[in-house]
């Protein structure tokens, strides 16, 4: 069992002006699950791109030994032929094609150029059984949830006779159930002798599943931890990743709670397409000045839908209910009106809904509050630079100036730009939807600090998060949402993961 | 940063924005040599302006359409329709020249409103809406003109595209007025660049070195002054150049300094993010097409003035010239990127190519082939640059 399947030696990869990898070493034993940890921008993804042939042999320095032979892949096909398959964070499936078609895409079972559909679907069914996915091979992939799509990706990898499976943040978009299922599958594949490399920010997961963890920091491999050693716990990994001990995951704070700023009464929203399906049902909640309130709920509970329907009716149909700011009913039927009423919404998907990635920090910072720096339709360019600079400094965004393209920033810095953009609108209430998704540990701490500062300045903050420890760590009060209904609220002192989970899973009563 | 580094950056890092200017200079030099200097003769420079002004006017609207992530295929037909409306009023109904002009522009804006409605409020892709508009407006042109050409316009109308301001302030062998305008242009440009630089420096942003700044501005200033001198020693200041310059300046300001301009770039860069930032996407899209229609009206008037009449087949393929100008000028096919100055230089590249080849006596077929290849190469270059920039992440 103790044979090395992969050895990457002194890998150095330079981009114009940046040394992304600097003499990285990585040793993976056959049949293990090997985790790679590091902050965003540490070079994890670059290393995996070198391994999978995205960066061809010759574009980097160093040597890759795979199964005793030097690997000289000039593209992804080469490395796949050797049995190295990478599954990217953004899934590469075609939504309109069937599961079977996706599995064999680029690798079709064909005779004389004609696809043998019986053989294709039959083989696909076998592979689906192997990954424990109970779907027909002819089902279009677009009809499956993210968790199941992830399994299709793995089935696709298995169809290529994979020896080394690389997963980049496989559980980032999955709920707890789907994550658990995926991790179990990886364990099963380990039994079958398939080696996996997993990149993840979820340290609990890594502690659970990995045999070895390699830590990468600033483009260098720092250490390889044997996870069988009880000392190799989450804190140990974090210490390696940030190069220092994080005394606490969540910054301390003394809440100064004032009057009710924001209130929603009897809020109901219907699904935009599916008739008669109610996504949010008679929900009510309030947030006080200086208070950080959480919303906990499983995937599909209607958390984001609730927030987006409040914010300019950006989601759903037939929206009913009242929004009150400072005790007075306000109209939030367009985004403009919602902003005017003092509401800001930081989306869970900053790349899709939060930022214009091809523009610079300056333009993104002022995008939601242009009215504040313009008169008669003309933007005051100097004032704009001044404001963007202010947020760059106060948010500690790590760039030399505000002319840096947002698309080139790390996740944590991008999130800070989004926060700056919404702070510039001077809101009374900030709704933060998954504010630390896809952000590394160090930057998370900074985001929490910023949230605390906002509360200290008397803002009302509403946080939506899938990570219960995060809610427990920063919130004063937590609402639970299940199947579109508010099922309870707990003050910080009474909230535990178990109690929240109980409330989050209360099913709809059949009679109502 | 030293000046040699900055020069290096122009040819490497900033090639995407500076590439079009370098290409333009190369093309001008090439055709100057091939035509034995005829290209840059005073008469020919004036001719290029008169001949291609309407494509540049269309490019001004098109760049906004393209930056917002749309396309407009109907502008050629709309040029014909607006010119026809103007001609019917002025030639058939003996209305004054300005009434025809205003009516043409108004019809253009109205047609833009029509298309904007379908794009913004019904949600049909602009490609389809304007493809329909291309047929629709062409058909209407035939209707308005009853299938026959109308000409000639009375004298004043012809002045719009063919007139000159000459001898307004006198001058010996040259037009003093034109020279003064040139000097004002150079001083104004320098002043605005200076203010821009000072503003950035004041707020701690990186600026180019003083040497680079001066070098750039002095070279630009000399080129502008030389250009105006050439015009001044020919027939004086073309009226259409004044219209064009005012429009370029206006649209440059509109796209770079106004809230409207910002919203256009925001929509093209990330539609969802723009919506969630409170941008009224429907209204902006509506105005983008109204504006395109309006400029098509202006181009229609200029074109009918220059051709001294209205023909049912006028403006054929103008949309492609305008679109090509934008893409050659560095606009992105996926929206969010593009500049007014780029589109103008892109349009000038097309103009110099056509004009240069005409001077050399190259046939129309070859001209089209060359223009097609240039468009393809320009976009290929853009994609190559994007990929190179993307590899840095």
User: Main sheet of chain A: which strands, in order across?
Assistant: 6-9-10-3-11-12
Instruction: Summarize model confidence as the mean pLDDT of chain B.
Output: 89
Helix coverage percent of chain A: 25-40%
Shape annotation of chain A: globular
Beta fraction of the residues of chain A?
Answer: 25-35%
The value of Rg of chain B in angstroms is 21 Å
- Biggest pleated sheet of chain B: 2 strands, antiparallel
Structural class of the helix and strand makeup of chain A? alpha/beta
Task: Explain the overall architecture.
The complex is a heterodimer of chains A (512) and B (393). Chain A has 512 residues and is an alpha/beta fold. Chain A has three domains: 4-242, Rossmann fold (3-Layer(aba) Sandwich), CATH 3.40.50.300; 255-342 and 427-512, 3-Layer(aba) Sandwich (Rossmann fold), CATH 3.40.50; 358-426, no CATH class. In chain A, the strands form six sheets. Chain A has a six-stranded mixed beta sheet, sandwiched between helices. In chain A, strands 18-21-22-15-23-24 form a six-stranded mixed beta sheet, sandwiched between helices. With 393 residues, chain B is mainly alpha-helical. Chain B contains 16 helices and two strands. Chain B has helices at residues 3-11, 15-34, 42-67, 75-92, 97-122, 126-145, 155-162, 176-202, 210-232, 239-257, 259-269, 271-276, 281-306, 318-328, 340-359, 364-390; strands at residues 164-165, 237-238. Chain B has a two-stranded antiparallel sheet with strand order 1-2. The chains are: A alpha/beta (512), B mainly alpha (393).
């Amino acid at each position: 069992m103790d044979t090395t399947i992969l050895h990457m030696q002194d890998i150095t990869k330079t981009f114009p002006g940046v040394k992304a990898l600097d003499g990285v070493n990585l040793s993976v034993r056959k049949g293990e699950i090997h985790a790679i940890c590091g902050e965003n921008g540490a070079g994890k993804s670059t290393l995996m791109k070198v391994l999978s042939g995205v960066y061809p042999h010759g574009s980097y320095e160093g040597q890759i030994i795979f199964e005793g032979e030097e690997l000289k892949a000039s593209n992804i096909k080469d490395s796949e032929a050797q049995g190295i398959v990478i599954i990217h964070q953004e899934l590469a499936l075609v939504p309109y094609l069937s599961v079977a078609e996706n599995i064999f895409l680029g690798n079709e079972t064909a005779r004389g150029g004609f696809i043998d559909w019986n053989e294709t679907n039959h083989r696909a069914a076998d592979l689906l059984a192997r990954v424990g996915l109970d779907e027909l091979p002819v089902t279009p992939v677009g009809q499956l949830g993210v968790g199941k799509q992830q399994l299709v990706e793995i089935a696709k990898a298995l169809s290529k006779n994979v020896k080394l499976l690389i997963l980049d943040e496989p559980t980032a978009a999955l709920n707890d159930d789907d994550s658990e299922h995926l991790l179990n599958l990886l364990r099963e594949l380990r039994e079958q002798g398939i080696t996996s490399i997993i990149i993840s920010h979820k340290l609990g997961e890594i502690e659970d599943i990995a045999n070895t963890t390699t830590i990468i920091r600033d483009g260098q491999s720092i250490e390889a931890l044997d996870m069988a050693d009880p000392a190799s716990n989450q804190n140990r990994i974090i210490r390696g990743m940030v190069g220092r001990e994080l005394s606490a995951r969540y910054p301390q704070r003394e809440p100064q709670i004032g009057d009710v700023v924001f209130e929603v009464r009897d809020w109901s929203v219907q699904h935009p397409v599916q008739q008669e399906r109610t996504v949010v049902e008679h929900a009510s909640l309030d947030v006080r000045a200086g208070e950080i309130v959480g919303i906990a709920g499983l995937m599909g509970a209607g958390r984001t839908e609730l927030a987006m329907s409040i914010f300019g009716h950006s989601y759903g149909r037939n929206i009913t209910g009242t929004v009150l700011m400072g005790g007075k009913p306000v109209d939030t039927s367009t985004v403009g009106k919602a902003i005017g009423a003092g509401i800001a919404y930081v989306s869970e998907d900053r790349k899709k809904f939060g930022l214009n990635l091809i523009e610079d920090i300056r333009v993104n910072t002022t995008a939601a509050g242009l009215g504040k720096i313009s008169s008669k339709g003309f933007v005051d360019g100097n004032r704009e630079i001044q404001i963007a600079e202010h947020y760059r400094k106060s948010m500690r965004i790590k760039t030399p100036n505000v002319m840096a393209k947002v698309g080139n920033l790390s996740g944590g810095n991008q999130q800070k730009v989004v926060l700056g953009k919404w702070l510039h609108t001077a809101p009374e209430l900030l709704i933060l939807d998954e504010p630390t998704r896809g952000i590394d540990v160090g930057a998370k701490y900074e985001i929490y600090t910023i949230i605390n500062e906002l509360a200290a300045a008397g803002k009302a903050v509403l946080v939506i998060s899938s990570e219960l420890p995060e809610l427990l760590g920063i919130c004063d009060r937590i609402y639970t949402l299940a199947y579109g209904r508010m099922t309870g609220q707990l003050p910080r002192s009474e909230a535990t993961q178990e109690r929240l989970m109980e409330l989050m899973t209360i099913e709809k009563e059949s009679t109502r | 940063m030293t000046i040699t580094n900055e020069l290096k950056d122009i040819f490497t890092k900033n090639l995407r924005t500076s590439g079009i200017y370098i290409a333009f200079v190369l093309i001008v030099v090439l055709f100057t040599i091939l035509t034995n200097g005829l290209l840059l003769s005073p008469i020919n420079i004036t001719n290029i302006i008169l001949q291609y002004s309407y494509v540049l006017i269309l490019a001004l609207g098109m760049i906004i359409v393209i930056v917002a992530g749309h396309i407009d295929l109907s502008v050629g037909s709309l040029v014909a329709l607006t010119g026809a409306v103007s001609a019917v009023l002025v030639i058939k109904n003996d209305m004054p020249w300005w009434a025809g002009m205003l009516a043409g522009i108004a019809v253009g804006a109205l047609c833009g409103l029509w298309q904007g409605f379908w794009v913004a409020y019904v949600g049909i892709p602009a490609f389809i809406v304007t493809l329909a508009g291309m047929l629709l407006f062409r058909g209407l042109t035939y209707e308005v003109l009853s299938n026959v050409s109308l000409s000639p316009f009375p004298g004043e109308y012809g002045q719009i595209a063919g007139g000159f301001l000459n001898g307004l302030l006198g001058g010996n062998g040259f037009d003093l007025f034109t020279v003064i305008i040139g000097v004002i242009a150079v001083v104004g440009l320098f002043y605005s660049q200076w203010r821009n630089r000072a503003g950035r420096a004041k707020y701690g942003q990186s600026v180019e070195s003083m040497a680079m700044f001066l070098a750039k501005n002095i070279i630009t200033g000399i080129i502008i002054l030389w250009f105006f001198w050439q015009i001044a020693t020919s027939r004086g200041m073309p009226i259409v150049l004044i219209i064009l310059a005012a429009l370029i300046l206006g649209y440059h300001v509109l796209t770079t300094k106004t809230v409207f301009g910002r919203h256009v770039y925001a929509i093209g860069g990330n539609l969802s993010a723009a919506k969630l930032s409170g941008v009224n996407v429907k209204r902006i899209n509506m105005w983008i097409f109204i504006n395109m229609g309006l400029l098509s009206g202006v181009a229609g008037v200029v074109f009918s003035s220059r051709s001294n009449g209205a023909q049912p087949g006028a403006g054929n393929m103008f949309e492609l010239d305008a679109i090509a100008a934008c893409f050659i000028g560095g606009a992105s096919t996926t929206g969010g990127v593009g500049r007014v100055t780029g589109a103008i230089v892109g349009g000038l590249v097309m103009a110099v190519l056509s004009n240069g080849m005409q001077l050399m006596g190259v046939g129309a077929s070859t001209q089209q082939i060359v223009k097609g290849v240039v468009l393809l190469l320009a976009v290929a270059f853009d994609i190559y640059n994007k990929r190179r920039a993307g590899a840095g992440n």
